[in-house]
Amino acid sequence: MKIMRRGLLIALTAIAPLTGQAAAVSEVITQSDNVVVQNTAEASVSATGRTDLYVGEYPAQFKVGTWTAKVTSGSVAFKWGAPMTAIDATGLNATTQNSTDSTKKVVLGINNPTAFPGPCSTSVAQTVGGVVWRACPQGVTDVSSGFVLASKSTLSPGSYPISIDVAAFAY
């Protein structure tokens, strides 16, 4: 009888390692890298008003200036800058006043797709901090556009300031 018990005990200890928990059979190897996020993008803009206009009446959509903008990443976003006033809810139209007679005001349009077709003609309104910006489609980093009279207007002697703010926009 003793021999039988010893044989059973030897049989059970031989089976035990086969039914145990799984374990690593090699060293653990780790690979890592960094996700790099740029702190800021850079933007540049140039705006030029026409200097060859005479006193008189001009039609709607008449081109009164141009602007170009570039960003290093993201998409070009733009809005009217100071001293433009009465900016509409779309962010596309604003009022400027004559430098010699503040009662003489005209409403200008910015980035008009008819007058200035291009990759940013389909800009969309984006409200950032309560201010309406116009963002070009994703990936548009270089824009040439302009300013137009929003409606038929009479221009008086003097100058009419134009101003545009540009920034990089991330979707």
User: Would you report the number of β strands?
Assistant: 11
> What is the terminal separation in angstroms?
82 Å
**Major sheet summary line:** 5 strands, antiparallel
Strand order of the largest sheet: 1-3-9-6-5
Instruction: Output the structural class.
Output: mainly beta
Strand content: 35-45%
Q: Whole-number average pLDDT?
A: 86
For the structure shown, list the relevant keywords.
mainly beta, 5-stranded antiparallel β-sheet, elongated, single chain, 8% helix, disordered N terminus, 171 residues, 4-stranded antiparallel β-sheet, 37% strand
Describe the model.
The protein is mainly beta and 171 residues long. Helix content is 8%, strand content 37%. The chain contains one helix and eleven strands, in the order H-E-E-E-E-E-E-E-E-E-E-E. The strands form three sheets. A five-stranded antiparallel beta sheet has the order 1-3-9-6-5, with no helix packed on it. Strands 7-8-4-11 form a four-stranded antiparallel beta sheet, with no helix packed on it. The longest helix is centred in the N-terminal third of the chain and has 14 residues, at 2-15. The protein starts with a helix and ends with a strand.
